[in-house]
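Study this pair:
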Amino acid sequence: MNDEQLLRYSRHLLLEEIDIAGQETLLKSHALVIGAGGLGSAAAPYLAAAGIGHITLMDHDQVELTNLQRQIMHTEKSVGKSKVNSGKEFLQQLNASIQIETIEAKATAALLDELLPSVDIVLDCTDNFASRHLINASCVKHRTPLVSGSALGFDGQISVFDPRNAASPCYACIFAPDDDFAEVSCSSMGIFSPLVGIIGAIQAAQAIQVLIGFGEVLVGRMLLWNARTTQIDEFKISRNPECSVCGKAH
């Protein structure tokens, strides 16, 4: 690291779990953030501030006025712009020394096959089951760690799925791809503004821990946050040997 970086990240360097070696790891890392909405608006800025050297933002949507209640990466001047371009402007103002790449598109299997070989970690900040299952399957295929978060109403959840760990379940171990879920969205159910900030910030923290390799990340555990009661619950999750994505047959 150069002198400017030593000063910028000095508060990280004081933490023995991170130190110079850990910060250098972050500077060399590539994180893919899929979804530049509520969760991504909290996760991506903390990754940028922490010094993740290469961040790719992927989202197909444009900024709408209703987004501004919670998607703090975007401003009133961003309305009508693509979320990834708006997000890139925000992140570059936060940390001009890192590389911000944008992909204005929905995640597809082909696109993820192209991206994941060069990605160190994926943050799923999307808002629907189909995308989550697609991202999970690609991460299992490419053995890329996945930090998965979701938020709706007053409730959020987060877990880490790491295909490099033989004991780690994947998203499909918990929610089978062929299960019939009633898809709901914040446009119909509503969402508490700070909730996405809380869950997105935890996603960023988990990603940093996975990249550096310290602490106990949420592999094999799911954390639930209830904003009504400020209650945090956690339950253990196990790998399903019959899982259609990561099971023995696959």
Summary: The domain at 3-236 is CATH 3.40.50.720 (Rossmann fold). The chain has a mean pLDDT of 95. Strands lie at 30-34, 54-58, 99-103, 121-124, 146-152, 155-161, 221-226, 231-236. The two ends are 42 Å apart (CA to CA).
